[in-house]
């Protein structure tokens, strides 16, 4: 059987040096860092992607291991395998670069949990990171790469240096990339469950799967948090092996973050015309690459607890953009009505109570499932 490398997990990267930050990054010194992930699809072998894209200095990796996860920081010792990079067990990753490990022959299936352990012998400085990783990470002093369990480990809730995993899948395997903001990444869904709406949607598919390149706080038109969506297209969509479809949810933070960051002073976000132009540019660039592009209405957020986020002007722009997306003039191949899937039927600008994660801006696991269930899977002809 002919096979090809296909993305089975992705984690979109954020710079730790942004002046406006919603999430605090960190570094590591002479520590073993173990992080877990869940594969969206399977194959006969795996390779791991690491990133120092936003690091200020070269990153010394004194060893890396891959294993099947058991629970928490635990691994199955029988599966523990050293990773190599061009045949070497250690590597120095230059600032601004990513690296892919040599292949590991390890048959894996969709839903399987892996753990990646990195020994970082020096002072890394603030690391390239991910806002909402699959699950809680663990760090311990020294080189404990092969430890079955990391005893008395420090826990952290952001992801670091781990950019994704590819699997050796049957040739012709096609996947979708979920691309956008916190509603894509799965903020406020339960850690360690893969219950973001793309994760739950992926489990509905008979063929192919979905990987997630959402960034909580991300915007379509403006940097912070993360590079803006139009700037992320090449790395976070086009460079993903196996991609044929893209699902996009973006716009909430374009409307809300200017006022939130400026609070209590007023601030203006983009106009509806500017968002429409940006979304059209996004769709056109993805179409030029031969991809099917599925857009989404902007989710409701009336009454969010985040001060300065909810403004009359932002609500008016959201209503105009959503009406355009539900009409006949948008540039997408299909639309998921995210807003309708989770709206309070009596106050459609708000998230309905049973789907509200508690802050009026994000959905919980049940809300993410409602969005996943609202998707016409025939749009994802993978």
From TrEMBL:
Any Pfam family the entry gives: Lipase_GDSL_2
InterPro entries the UniProt entry points to: GDSL_Rv0518-like (IPR053140), SGNH_hydro (IPR013830), SGNH_hydro_sf (IPR036514)
Taxonomic superkingdom: Bacteria
Stretches of the chain forming a coiled coil according to its record: none
Domain SGNH hydrolase-type esterase, chain residue ranges per copy: 178-370
Entry protein name: GDSL-type esterase/lipase family protein
Higher taxonomy: Bacteria, Bacillati, Actinomycetota, Actinomycetes, Kitasatosporales
